[in-house]
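PT: before anyone asks, these are the final sequences, not the draft ones from last week. 720 residues across everything. Please model them as a single complex and drop the result in this thread when it's through.
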Amino acid sequence: MTTDAAALQRWTWGLRLSVLLPVLLLLGAAALVSSTNGSLTSLVGANPPPADELEIRRATFHANEISVLVRNPQRDAITIASVTVDDAIVPFTVDGPKRLGRLRSATINIPFTWVEDDPYSIGVTSSSGIQSTIEVPAAFEAPAPSRATFTGYALIGFLVGIVPVVLGMMWLPALRRADPRWLAAFMALTAGLLTFLAIDAFAEALELQASLPSALGGPGLIVLGVAVSYLGLSWTAHRLTKGTPTGDGVAPLAGVGLATMIAVGVGLHNLGEGLAIGSSFALGEVALGSVLVTGFMVHNVSEGLGIVAPVAEGKRRVSSLRLAALALVAGGPVILGAWIGGFITNEILGVFFFAIAVGAALEVVVEVGRYIARRAAGGLTSGAVVGGFLAGLAIMYTTSLLVG
Amino acid sequence: MAASLPVAGLAQAADDPGNGDGPEASAAADHQQGAHVGPDVVAPGERGELDALLIPPPALTAEPGRVRHYEIVAMDRDIEVAKGVFFPAWTYNGTVPGPVMRATEGDILEVEFSNAGSHPHTIHFHGIHPANMDGVFEIVEPGESFTYRFPARPYGMQLYHCHAPPLKKHIHKGLYGAFIIDPPTPRPPAKELVMVMNGFDTDGDGENNFYAVNGKAFYYAKFPIRVRRSELVRIYLANLTEFDLINSFHLHGDFFRYYRTGSTDQFEYTDTIMQCQGERGIIEIDFANTGLFMFHAHQSEFAELGWMGFFDVVDE
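LR: through. Structure below.
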């Protein structure tokens, strides 16, 4: 204690200043470098001229109007100078200044009597004459945000998210009577399907970040999202098990606690799933027919089974209210995701959501793994566990073909 | 007597309400696709800015052996080819096309050419002249100069352009212009105009992004060319468009006499002509009506990318 106090006393002003000194010197050095105005870098060569090419993110068609969302992907500012539709110069307005700074976006509105189902080529030319073009294979009226589409997305989210999870949970009474080996197999199946979901979300995150300008740091965003959700859930799991008295360190999460963690992991993945459904529908990339909705329903039923598997082992009864809450946590985010994806275009948000889903799913796989290792007979290498895990992967893969 | 034309798949149409293209209709069209003509047209430049390229110096009466002296400087310059779009051009005297040169048949043309640009250039004239005045062999390096001197012949609408390799680059960058040689017997008096059809590939993909006459997209739609109905209108027209095989000129609401190259008195009576690159001719219009008459390339794409203008025909 005395040494600690002495150490604290030694935090004199001089010492505090010495902590700040490197920061101050760094600021000074940075200011010096930027004040040379590029003459330092010119020692090793000249910067190539900027591409001056705007990135066209999407074109949407409304009554007598075409809207084009553009972004400046480069460091230097770009000025929107001219807009063409099918190689004809057209008048346009911009919702803000025509000069776009680094990574700034703008919407270009073009009054135009377009033809339903016709292909269109829309070009945006910068003041230095560089033209970017977006090819629209078939023009169609973009769904405008309305009460009907709002309800529609909610309904689709309910069918795809909550209904299958609830259906899967209805296996709980049967699971309660199942042999312990079968229970272990079902827990392993849960781990298998969560592993599949993690890989799936990771692939989505990678694909989406590839469409971002490199300056937005997509890979870093994924690392950040995965770390935040993985470590955040680890921390939460640790807090949830703190009350459990055990002889050796931290006990594995079990029962309702583990079920909650699985529901959270599944829910975060489903947020991304909803986001994908909403934005695909808004962009007209997916004909969201009844086949697709059915496919997602079949795909998600096993998620409900996974959530109730750890509850089945416990002796205590779980109230149906608590089960309903778990279903909402796991399935509800599809609705939220569909709203976000349907009405807001933000790839950065999309990448981050998918990355969060990856971390969450992985963390829950680890929790489930620890649970199986401690509780299941034969541990992680028993036939039931290995078979269950592979079955989980196989079920997810097979049902994913329905929505591919 | 009203003729009834067949309409496939439709019963007899209801009574035609009359002229569909009344002022209301055109106002609606403006709302949809922007203004066609007048100050609201999106085009670069100020009123009168292109007069030096549009209106040639006056023709002089024949005086064989007289020297016509011109000074031409090649210089790099960013020019505004469409509203807000700048093109890093190579120019003669700072404009694309370059200045209009004019001589009467039998004059000695003397062109003092200096190169203030960053690349080697020449001036190659169309017409009859010695091989050492052809602008092919005497490449003028940056900072150097050369004087072209030869008798101007034959009369007609000629042109000039850079012939330094690579030719395609030196032409599409903007090194070209009109060269008029007047006949010994003067042409009838007229309101004389020069139009050089050109295009600009601003993003370097080998296709033109903008088209124009005299270098500025839609300029003559924003500032229509005012002419008098009583006066003969004579247009010296040349095509210096790179990349596209042909360009064309179409006049609305009237016909004209077209003298191909303008070196003979043979003409064609039409409202649409086409020219390949380097081809040129003389158009003579006697306007029958007053009002706004459009002229443009009859390649719709060129017209909608800037090669479109108007005559404003008035009675005094």
